[in-house]
């Protein structure tokens, strides 16, 4: 019989009946009967043991879990629960009015969690679906990625092996647990390696919203809790650098940096100050991490070698393809790509003679902010263009903490344009809002090379033409805000 996440945690619990695995499993077992008649189960809770209890309860009950990130807008939450056919909700905040608006009614409470139920049409899911992860949303309607427990276990097992090699004993869950990177490569890996999961609230590690973060709260937690491993995002690393000398981070053995590209220079600056940072790469369709630098196999400027569960290659178009730990399919779509032995990633890459992978670009226009949020510029542009007076819009922000835009709005005063952008932002989640913008003095046209003949933006040309102005927007503020 193949091992499962639950069976491995049970082994740890049997060896130490007073330890964290035993405590989590006992609480999950008490909660599991309330899920007996459930279809798909949404999970919405702050970081903490209650979140892990809810997650483990879905595994014990063989139910598909739908983790709901705290940074999702109300519309995205509705899309996630409706498209997945979630008839049950586990939450630490049952009083929130939008649960009632979605048809959920309180069913009961167990420990720090309540379960709510509603009537809804079940949705056909791929067999063996254990989790449906919705990314931060490349559009308002993000794709639900269906994952098996086995695929998640493969990734978590690879990371757990590294934790054991480093003799790490305390992992700090720094990212929101609904984010697959922390869920699988953080919490699951720690549970499998029998490493203590330190689980402060999101506010306790500095989060406010999805893209506002206080580095001091994180550093204080590391120092006080003697943390040995953690996962952070590139923009978080940048915010940490000026403060490292004020806190004791000597306990750290491995800090994984992922979610978006990070410069080799930034990694080097951190290492000079004693922070053991290592870059990795992954995607939801491969159950999170695929490649990772780590002690003993490290090459800054690359995203590392593939982990033991994965294999990589470059196809004829220069695109990275991955074998191993594939998803089962997209929610509501035929499982075509998921059945391929080699999954195209959409990322252009190279692999050197020693097997280290370097990501060189993206095949499509999808932006990934430095907070790891996936954003389709067309989505944001459509909201801007819905405001009267904004005639053309081009949105940028790859590897940046917030979005910028070039806007052509000749009939609007500066005040009116600012108001129009503010109105567009209201309909967007905070990570997809335009923070600052540049005014274009002429339209994007085929004649000036900024648009195609049918009016589509030539993004590279616009970015090049307004390069200095766009860079000035980011260099003029040091704020770590969306």
What can you tell me about this protein's structure?
Helices cover 30% and strands 24% of the residues. The protein is α/β, with parallel strands linked by helices. The chain has 2 domains: 358 residues, Rossmann fold (3-Layer(aba) Sandwich); 100 residues, ANL, C-terminal domain (GMP Synthetase, Chain A, domain 3). The protein has a 7-stranded mixed β-sheet with strand order 9-8-12-13-14-15-16. Helix 1 crosses helix 2, helix 2 packs across helix 3 and helix 6 packs across helix 7. The longest helix is centred in the first third of the chain and has 17 residues.
Per CATH, the superfamily of the largest domain is ANL, N-terminal domain
Cα separation of the termini: 47 Å
Query: Percent of residues in beta strands?
Result: 15-25%
Using only C-alpha atoms, the radius of gyration works out to: 22 Å
Q: What is the CATH top level name of the largest domain? A: Alpha Beta
* Number of structural domains: 2
Based on the structure given, which CATH architecture of the largest domain is correct? 3-Layer(aba) Sandwich
Strands of the largest sheet, in order across it?
9-8-12-13-14-15-16
Q: Mind describing the biggest β-sheet?
A: 7 strands, mixed
Question: Which stretches are low in confidence, meaning pLDDT under 50 for 5 or more residues running?
Answer: 477-482
Mean of the pLDDT scores? 91
